[in-house]
Design goal:
56% of the residues lie in helices and 12% in strands. The protein is of the alpha/beta class.
Length: 693
């Protein structure tokens, strides 16, 4: 028989050392994965929590991204300074103390008191609310990736820490993709926040464990001359890192804004682009071979051309629009991040590299989320981002190309720049006014109708917010979704005429519904965007010509109604579009209860649900059933030669005794049948994936 080899103390020591190293590696990986998962899971949770406080605007998503990128920059700066200024063990102590202090800020629930102040300065108030609710935990989470990599590189000199960056991005993507599928459809938002807070406490324990493993790994300071001798990257190289990261960030936010405003401000359409952005990080940093440079450089001009129709205002079916923009964004990000990985420095300068990446991300986010709405009249940031992407690729390739190819690329770049300038000019050319603020872009356009004369239109994004014929013969006639054949038109025309009526409208638009006012009537018009009110007064005459007393109320309609005394409306119309979707907080069971509080027993709640992308019928039907109300749907398919009407879908909600008479008076009114198994929306729960057309 073979004699079993006896293991010496030296062998046993080596085994224990290998086992300890394995435990340390698992500890680092677990901490990085958990931190990245929580880092990106909190983003849709807190954004959805505060979305109703700021009018449901898609700008809330962009502003949230600016905040998270700024926090990420602070976190990376903290890590860089910690790495440069403190010894390894002092780093462990400082970070452990901050982790324990951050537990005092739990749970991560935004203070409802901010609802009252949200309207005054929405952009800055979003940032303040986020800072107070998640500032400290998010900052500590943002430090974990680069800090663990620095500690990991110190403990395992033979292994590359960049794969931990890929692991963190994988966790981030899983967090984002799981939210709309596994979290949002099943759990109210406050339950999500409490569960996240518990998970954060577990993360703190895991991070403290990693700090302890790092502490044990530096029993003595060991110099690594080969690492310290790596030359510091030139500032031109650092600027190129910043430029590539900034361009990817600009394109991410600009394309996300397009999707969330012109399709729907929902977590899914916020999560999808960010997931693709993170996927490019995962592929590029985990294994650079995934960035096949020739293939992606060929795909880049194809992606730029694919977006040409989107930029030029072309209308595409929703699936094609989402697919085209998502695939293009992925190609842009793979090129930017792939070139970053090709130029990454030695491990000694790892924290500097990540600091430059975070500076670029924060600059891109601030440009789209803060600067552009204040400076630009139109959405110029997407053309600017596309041109920067093309320009940086030319810069990166410049030294590798022969002179003839350099000049050819320069000519192509110049031609592409001219094309983007032309598209940008079209955004503002031929419009009477182009305005933009936190709540989106408004444009006023004049077109000539051969039979009826000049027609003036207000647009929010690509959506009509009212039309009026300027000729005195027709300028008092209601048009578009509000014409006399529409559901709201018929409902208003069939209100009692033997006494003055009181009518409420959430969403002013051009003020078309004011044309239905009669002498003695009062119409309260709720509008969150002051620019809409200014345009309605300046460029349209519905408000001035109305026989009713018009009372404009600036602010979020739902919040205003919740704070007002009972109004006793004969009819309350909900017509608050955000791009091409009604903000979800205006359709919850709590919101509809607030509306019904202001309506007389025989009164009518009219809800405009015309939408290209969302089927809002089951939402309204489920609420009506739970509140013991009857809902009637009125669908108008306007004739092609009807200059005054557009296709529209209105739902009339009334108490059972009033609904019977209403159905007899309104042509085409039919009972709205609830969808079996459809869950009622609440302020804490909504699921737009189930109603996408």
């Amino acid at each position: 028989m073979r004699r079993r080899q006896r293991r010496t103390p030296r062998h046993r020591s080596a085994d224990r050392s290998a086992q300890a190293s394995k435990v340390s590696m698992i500890s680092f990986a677990t901490t990085v994965f958990l931190s990245a998962f929580l880092l990106f899971q909190i983003q849709p949770i807190i954004a959805k929590m505060i979305l109703p406080w700021f009018g449901g605007s898609s700008s809330v998503w962009s502003t949230c991204l600016v905040f998270f990128q700024a926090e990420l920059l602070l976190g990376y700066l903290y890590v860089h300074l910690l790495h440069e200024w403190l010894s390894p063990r002092r780093q462990n102590v400082v970070h452990a103390v901050l982790l324990l202090l951050s537990l005092a800020t739990l749970p991560v629930i935004a203070d409802p008191a901010w609802k009252e102040a949200a309207f005054a300065h929405p952009t800055w108030n979003v940032l303040v609310v986020l800072a107070s609710a998640v500032g400290m935990p998010y900052l500590l989470l943002s430090t974990t990736g680069p800090l663990m990599q620095a500690w990991y590189a110190r403990s395992f000199t033979s292994l590359m820490p960049y794969r931990l960056y890929a692991l963190s991005n994988l966790a981030s993507m899983l967090a984002l993709l799981s939210y709309p599928v596994l979290v949002e459809p099943y759990f109210p938002v406050f339950e999500q926040a409490w569960a996240w807070s518990v998970a954060y406490a577990l993360f703190v324990l895991a991070c403290l464990g990693s700090a302890w493993q790092s502490w044990k790994g530096v029993a003595s300071e060991v110099e690594r001359p080969h690492a310290d001798a790596a030359p510091r990257p030139a500032w031109s190289e650092c600027l190129l890192w910043v430029g590539l990261a900034m361009t990817a960030s600009i394109l991410l936010l600009a394309m996300t804004r397009h999707l969330t405003q012109d399709v729907a401000p929902i977590p899914f359409l916020w999560v999808l682009p960010l997931s693709l952005y993170l996927l490019s990080f995962i592929l590029c940093f985990d294994a650079p071979r995934y960035y096949y440079r020739p293939g992606f450089l060929v795909a880049l001009p194809i992606a730029l051309l694919a977006l040409d129709r989107v930029l030029d205002g072309g209308s595409l079916p929703v699936p094609i629009l989402i697919a085209a923009m998502s695939l293009s964004l992925f190609i842009f990000c793979m090129v930017c991040h792939g070139e970053l990985v090709r130029r990454r420095p030695a491990v000694r300068h790892l924290t500097l590299f990540y600091l430059m990446l975070s500076i670029g991300g924060a600059l891109g986010g601030s440009f789209v989320g803060l600067l552009a709405p204040a400076v630009f009249e139109a959405y110029f940031e997407l053309p600017i981002g596309l041109f920067l992407c093309a320009l940086l690729v030319v810069i990166v390739l410049w030294h590798d190309l022969k002179p003839a190819w350099r000049w050819l690329l320069a000519v192509v770049l110049l031609a592409y720049g001219c094309r983007l300038v032309g598209i940008s000019v079209d955004y503002v050319q031929d419009y009477r006014h182009v305005l933009r603020n936190f709540y989106g872009q408004l444009r006023v356009l004049d077109k000539n109708d051969e039979a009826l004369g000049l027609k003036r239109t207000m647009l929010h994004g690509e959506i009509y917010h009212g039309e009026q014929f300027i000729s005195p013969a027709y300028n008092r006639r209601p048009t578009a979704y509000y014409c006399e054949k529409s559901g709201i038109g018929q409902a208003l025309l069939n209100l009692a005429i033997d006494r003055p009526r009181k009518i409420g409208v959430l969403g002013l638009g051009a003020g078309t519904l004011a044309s239905y006012g009669r002498p003695g009537d009062e119409m309260r018009m709720y509008e969150i965007n002051e620019q809409v009110l200014d345009l309605a007064r300046r460029d349209f005459s519905y408000l001035a010509d109305s026989a009713a007393q018009i009372v404009p109320v600036l602010g979020d309609g739902r919040l205003m109604l919740e704070s007002e005394a009972v109004q006793h409306f004969d009819l309350l119309a909900i017509d608050a579009f955000s791009g091409d979707s009604i903000p979800t907080h205006l359709l919850t069971i709590e919101a509809i209860r607030a509306y019904l509080r202001h309506i007389k027993n025989e009164g009518v709640l009219a809800m405009h649900i015309t939408n290209r992308y969302l089927d809002l019928r089951p939402v309204v039907a489920a609420a009506a059933r739970q509140l013991d109300m009857h809902a009637l749907i009125v669908t108008l398919d306007a004739d092609a030669d009807d200059a005054f009407c557009r296709d529209s879908v209105w739902v009339m909600m009334a108490r059972p005794e009033a609904a019977l008479g209403l159905q007899e008076k309104i042509r085409g009114a039919a009972p709205l049948v609830p969808r079996p198994g459809f869950a009622v929306w609440t302020d804490g729960f909504s699921n737009l994936l189930k109603i996408l057309k």
